[in-house]
Design a protein that fits this description.
This protein is an alpha+beta fold. The protein has helices at about 5-30, 45-65, 95, 165-180, 190-200, 210-225, 250-260; strands spanning about 35-40, 45, 70, 75, 85-90, 105-110, 115-120, 125-130, 135-140, 140-145, 155-160, 185, 205-210, 230, 245.
Length: about 260
Amino acid sequence: MKLMINTKMIKTASQAALTAGRELLAVYEKFDRSGVKFKTPREIVTKADLLSERIIKKIIKANFPDHQILSEESGLSGKASPYLWIVDPIDGTTNFSMHNPLWSISIALSYKGEIQLGIVLVPILGEVFVAVKGLGAYLNGQKIQVSEKRIKEAINTFCHGSDLKDIKRAIRYYEKQKLHNFDCRQLGSTAVELAYVAAGRVESIGIPGARVWDVAAGVLLVSESKGKVTDLTGEKWNIKSRDILASNGRDHSKLINAWK
């Protein structure tokens, strides 16, 4: 199998995530919610998001000036290229703003629409999740794999987009899982939840209204840890998919039915 990425790309992604992570830790310690701004009625942005984005984009551009970058706060930049970096400078901004440690930095690199590299850094916990297409998924250098648990023992997680219909759909799913199975939770960072599926800490994450920068790195983590990733109808996930379901694969079809 021919790899479409190289060592320099992996090092660049790692450097970008770790450099931004160090800066964010300093901001996090003294963060005051009074600096929060609403970009939509249900989405916030902080100066920390913008700081992280500037750091990450600067490092990527310095190493790969011909690549495109898609980042949550500034959108698409750069000339057309088969390589696209997909960046969420802080995934879990609300958690960050309330001093909840479950926030992350998510960086992925795709080639012609296929995710080749994914990194999710959880700075407070000192955890770095890395996946390379065809080479597996790792947590702090140790290979990881999804769990073997079936649905009655599963911890299922969920998130949703900002549209009201997506929120209502997520609430219906939460009610089904909470009443009829072991547990269902919203952790507040999609990238963290995907990484947790990959590491076998939880069994699934479903998201109506998912945005690609939230999930791109995590999709590869789950896929490379022997999990399963589709949209909420069971079709293969791609970077244009409107929603996502990632699981350990044991009861994926039952989870799809629960989202109907």
